[in-house]
Amino acid sequence: AEIVIVPDAAAAGALVADEILRLVAANPETVLGLATGSTPLPVYEALRPRLADTDVSLVQGFALDEYVGIDPSHPESYRSVIAREVVEPLGLDPRRIRVPDGSLEGIEHAGDDYERAILEAGGIDLQLLGIGTDGHIGFNEPGSSFASLTRVKTLTEQTRDDNARFFDSVEAVPRHCITQGLGTILRARHLVLLAFGEGKAQAVAGAVEGPLTASLPGSAIQLHPHATVVVDEAAASRLA
Ligand code: F6R
Description:
CATH topology: Rossmann fold
Number of helices: 7
Largest sheet: 7 strands, parallel
EC number: 3.5.99.6
Keywords: Allosteric enzyme, Carbohydrate metabolism, Hydrolase
Site (Part of the allosteric site): 144, 151, 153-154
Bound molecules: fructose -6-phosphate
Function: Catalyzes the reversible isomerization-deamination of glucosamine 6-phosphate (GlcN6P) to form fructose 6-phosphate (Fru6P) and ammonium ion.
């Protein structure tokens, strides 16, 4: 992967927002892979003021993942988060932005449906990624196959603890999720993994320099011909 060390998250946001703008200028139907959580927020914030002269009405988007068994209207469902943090502020067409369906009805088809929708859109041009402290990308927790496609997974206790800040308590964090697989992610044409802060340093080092291992799903990015890792000094601190 290409490593870019930036002074802070805002600089990362500006850098990645500029790359997204270049893509959309060249192809108004650009397909973005959207991440949730804290990490990608500076990208979405940097995009907003830069979009004044850009027509985003045809941009398509696919979220990485969703919790299973959470009401879609819950403020922390990724459907709600993508609407609030991405679709509304950036003025995207909500009909062109998809989030995996984590509702219990039809969960057995949801993964296949999502894969089909990505293929029909022509594949993802740029996939934003954060990384979990346990090394997950998307919600592909340790042990995920590098060939995996969109499917239901169980969140680790580590991830549930990490995400408890978005809920009233750790008990309120869903136990299951539906996530693009590592194989799905690897099909995107450009991967952009962002990480900020000391807490991500170990996972970043493992993803970038560690052995390719299902124990650190982020290491799958080493299989991708065009992966960019944008990190601050703290997140880069364990790189050789
Ligand atoms: C979110 C996702 C996760 C997060 C990761 C880091 O859609 O797929 O992999 O990117 O859990 O979360 P934050 O950015 O909140 O530290």
